[in-house]
Automatic annotation (TrEMBL):
The chain crosses the membrane at residues 36-56, 62-82, 94-111. It is a multi-pass membrane protein. PANTHER family: CGI-141-RELATED/LIPASE CONTAINING PROTEIN (PTHR21493), GOLGI TRANSPORT 1BA (PTHR21493:SF250). GO terms for biological process: endoplasmic reticulum to Golgi vesicle-mediated transport; retrograde transport, endosome to Golgi. This is Golgi transport 1Bb. Belongs to the GOT1 family. It comes from Oreochromis aureus. InterPro entries: Got1, Vesicle_transpt_Got1/SFT2. It is found in: Golgi apparatus membrane.
Length: 164
């Protein structure tokens, strides 16, 4: 093997490693704060789901609400959380969502969860078209969204023109 041949092999190997590293940069490493936030949000969703399954248990729903909001704050940061919730055009949605959290905390779980769900849909309605578009590209779920009865609703959700 001549010296120039070794250089070419080494160059090709470095090129391949650089390409592999570039593909991994699409998924950036989460910070410890974001990992904690994902855990808190996950536990919050679990407690909310479990609280609804157990006939709207007040304690589980309250814990789920607190963990969900705290986890969201950890994931995107306090400043961005406040900016998201307290935008002028989202004040109605925020009042329903946080009002529902408060109603659950004072002991009326069914009314509180209904208020939260309505506020949640108002808050995140700008994200639903993105989610529907993503789900349509998934092989099995995309074919389910194209069924006659479901496609009308999916098209309606996918055509939102509201601001995020």
């Amino acid at each position: 093997m001549c010296p120039s041949e070794g250089y070419i092999i080494n160059y090709n190997l470095n090129k391949r490693v650089a390409k592999m590293n570039a593909s991994w940069t699409l998924f950036r490493k989460m910070s410890t704060r974001e990992e904690i936030g994902m855990g808190l949000t996950g536990f919050g969703v679990f407690f909310l789901f479990f609280g609804m399954i157990l006939f709207f248990d007040k304690a589980l729903l309250a814990i789920g609400n607190i963990l969900f909001v705290a986890g969201l704050s950890f994931v995107i940061g306090l400043e961005r959380t406040f900016r998201f919730f307290f935008q002028k055009h989202k004040m109605k949605a925020t009042s329903f969502f946080l009002g529902g959290v408060f109603v659950v905390l004072i002991g009326w779980p069914i009314i509180g969860v209904l208020l939260e769900i309505y506020g949640f849909f108002l808050l995140f309605r700008g994200f639903f078209p993105v989610a529907v578009g993503f789900i349509r590209r998934i092989p099995v779920l995309g074919s389910i969204l194209n069924l006659p009865f479901i496609s009308a609703y999916a098209d309606k959700v996918g055509e939102s023109n509201t601001m995020v």
